[in-house]
Amino acid sequence: MVLFDYAFIVRALLAALFTGLAAPAVGTYLVQRRLALLGDGIGHISVTGVAIGLLTGTEPTYTAVLVAIAGGIMIEVIRERGRTSGDVALALLFYGGIAGGVLLTGIAGQSAATLNTYLFGSITTISTGDVWVTVVLAVVVIAVALGLAPQLFAVAQDEEFAKVAGLNVRMYNVLVSVLAAVTVTVAMRTVGLLLVSALMVVPVATAQQVTRGFRTTLLAAMGLGTAASIGGVVISTYVDVAPGATIVLLSLAAFASAWPFGVWVRRRVRLAAPFTEPVDVLVPATGHHAVPEEHEHQHGEHCGHRAVPHGDHVDYVHDGHRHASHGSHYDEH
Amino acid sequence: MKPVVEIRDGAVELGGRPVLRGIDLSIGAGEVVVVLGANGSGKSTLVRTMLGLVPTCRGEVRLFGAPLERFHDWKRVGFVPQRVTAAAGVPASVREVVASGRLAQRRLLTPMRARDRTAVSEAIAAVGLTDRAGDGVSTLSGGQQQRALIARALAGRPELLVLDEPTAGVDQASQEAFANTLAGLVEQGATIVLVAHEIGPVRRLIGRSVVMRDGRVAYDGAPTGDAVPEHEAGHHATLDTAHPDHTPAVTSPVDPREAR
Fold first, then answer.
1. Could you list the pLDDT tens digit for every one of the 260 residues in chain B?
2. Fewer Cβ within 10 Å of end Cβ, chain A: N or C?
3. Which residue ranges does chain A devote to CATH 1.10.3470.10?
C-alpha cells in the first residue's frame, strides 16, 4: 500500500482513527441530553486556549486542554444554575472565547494562518508527539465513555431518576463536559476547533436514522465517525482538498443518504401503530355504528387499505374512516 | 418499627416562595398512600421532598429511619417521575431504559449479572411490554412509555415505591395493567406512595389518603372519594364550621392550631 510509505500519512491516519472513535462516543451523550452544540461552544472557548499557548510559547495543545476543561465546567455550571437565560450565557461564553483567541493571537504576533491550522485542522502536519497525545487522550475518553455507559446513560436520560438511584448527577454531568472538552482538543488537529462538533454530532444523527437502541446508536456512530475520518484523510492524499472539511462533508453525506430511509421507517412505524381505546371519563363509549353505504368491497389482507390492529381485531383505514369487520357488515370505529 | 418515610415540621421554598409548610407525615412499612390535591397544591413537591429532589428549608426528612442527607441505601427506593415522555435525544430501547433501574444494585464498571437481567425481564413482563422490549421507547404510545418508566422503578425491586402521577393521560388498558402490577407489589409488602389527580382502577389498593391544599396537608386518613375536593379560595376559618356539602373527613382536621 503506497499510503503507508509516507510517515506523515501514517500519523494522520492514526490521529483520524482515534478522533473518529472518540468524538461520536462523547457526542452520543451530548445529543441524548439535547446539548448537541456543547462541543461547538467548547471549541470556540478553546480558541482562547490555543492563543494563550501561542502567546506564552507553551505547546497550544496543553493550554487548549486546560482552557477547554475550564470552559466545559463553566458551561455545565451555567446550565445547572440559570435555567432560563442559559443559552444567552452560553452565547456570551462562545463569542468571548473566539474574540479573546483572535485578540491574543494578534498580541502574540502570530499570523491568522497559524490560528487557522487550529481552527480548521492540519492533520498532515501533525508530529509524532501530537499523535501520541491524541491517541492517549482518545483512549481515555473512549474507555470512560464506554465503561461508565450505564451511569452516563441514566443521567442523560432522566436526571431525577438517576438521583433517586443514588448517582451523583452533578459529578456525571461535569464528567461529560470534561470528556467533551478533551475530545475537542484531541480533534483540534484533525478537523479543527470550528468543525469538531460536526464529528461529535453528525455520526450520531446518522446512526439514529436506523437504530432503535442506545448501545447500537453509540457503536454505529463510532463506526461512522471512524469511516468518515479515515475516508477524509485518504481522499485528501489523492485530491488536493482540506482533510478536516472533507471529513465533515463525508459525515454529512452519510447523513443525507440515511435520512430518507429514517423518514420512511418512522412513517411506517407510525402508520402501523395500533389504535387504543381512549380514557372514557366524559363521553361514554359510543355504541354500534354500522357502515351505512352499500359496501361493495371486501376488506382483507391485500385490499389496499391499511390494516391497523385495534384491541382484539383489525381496523381498515378507508377514506378517513376506520372499518372493522362485524359479521356480515362493517362497523365504524 | 421505624416509619419508612417521615417528615417532621417540613417546609419547602422554591425560588424564595413558600411552597410547602407545616408538613408532618409518617408512612409505615406496607402502607399504600395516595397523595391527592388540585394543581399547584404541592402534592408533587411533597413526594419530591421525600426523595431529596427538593431541599427543605425547615424540618427534617427521614427515609427508613435515616436522615435524608445520610441516607445512601437508594436501592430500597424506586421512583416514577412525572413525565410526558420517556424518550431523550438518542433512541433507547425499552430494555435499556428499564435496565437503568438496576443501577443502584450494580457496582461500577461491572456488566449486568444474570440476576440483573432477570429482574429487568420480570419488570418488563410485569407491565406487559415483553413483546416491545427491543423497540425504541419513542415509538411507544404515551401509556406504554409510562409503563416503561414504571418497569424501570420495579426493576430495582424497591421496598418503597414513589410514583408521581403515573396514570395521567394513560389509556384504560394501561391503567388496569398498572393497577395489577401495583397489587402484586402490595402483596409482597412494599410501601407505596402514589400522587394522583384521580384514583381510577387502583382505588381498591389504597389504604390511606393524604389531601394537599395550598402547600399543607388538608386531610390525612381513610380513603376519600375519587374526586379531589376543591374548595375555591377556602378560608381556613370556615373549615371549622362543618359544611354539610363537603365530605366530613376532609373538612374536619385542618391544622387546628392555625385555624383557631
1. 789 999 999 999 988 889 999 999 999 999 999 999 988 899 999 999 999 999 999 999 999 999 999 999 999 999 999 887 788 889 999 999 999 999 999 988 889 999 999 999 999 998 889 999 999 998 888 888 988 999 999 999 999 999 998 877 677 777 887 888 889 889 999 999 999 887 878 888 999 999 999 999 999 999 875 544 444 444 444 343 334 344 343 444 444 433 33
2. N
3. 3-197
Name chain A contacts of B83, Cβ cutoff 8 Å: 158
Q: Which residues in chain A have Cβ-Cβ distances shorter than 8 Å to B51?
A: 163-164
Residue-number span of the structural domain to which B26 is assigned: 5-259
Q: Which of residues 32-51 of A touch B (CB under 8 A)?
A: 32-34, 36
Q: Which of B63, B64, B84, B90 to mutate to test the interface with A (most CBs of A within 10 A)?
A: B90
Nearest residue, CB atoms, B171 vs list A163, A211, A276? A276
Residue identified by cell 413537591 is B45
Whichever domain contains B34, its CATH number is 3.40.50.300
B75 in contact with chain A, both atoms CB, cutoff 8 A: yes
Give the separation between CA A140 and CA A21, rounded to whole angstroms. Answer: 12
- Show which of residues 123-152 on chain A sit within 8 Å of chain B, judged by CB atoms: 147-148, 150-151
Q: What is the ipTM, given to two decimal places?
A: 0.84
Q: How far apart are CA A332 and CA A316, in angstroms?
A: 10
Report in angstroms the alpha-carbon separations of B20 from B9, B63, B163, B218: 10, 19, 19, 12
**Which triple of cell numbers denotes residue A89?**
450565557
A116-159 pLDDT tens trace: 889 998 888 888 988 998 999 999 999 999 999 999 999 999 99
User: How far off is chain B from A278, nearest CA to CA, in Å?
Assistant: 5
- C-alpha torsion sign, points A269, A275, A279, A281: positive
Cβ of residue A164 closer than 8 Å to a chain B Cβ: yes
B104:A161 CB<8 A: no
Treating both helix axes as pointing N-terminal to C-terminal, what angle do A86-107 and A112-119 enclose, rounded to 10 degrees?
Answer: 140
* 3-class secondary structure, A137: helix
Pick the CATH number of A3-197 from 3.40.50.300, 3.30.413.10, 3.30.1360.70, 1.10.3470.10: 1.10.3470.10
Interface test with B, best of A144, A157, A204, A224 (most B CBs within 10 A): A157
- A276: CB partners within 8 A, 6+ apart: B141, B143, B171, B173
Residues of chain B contacting A154 with CB distance shorter than 8 Å? 100, 103
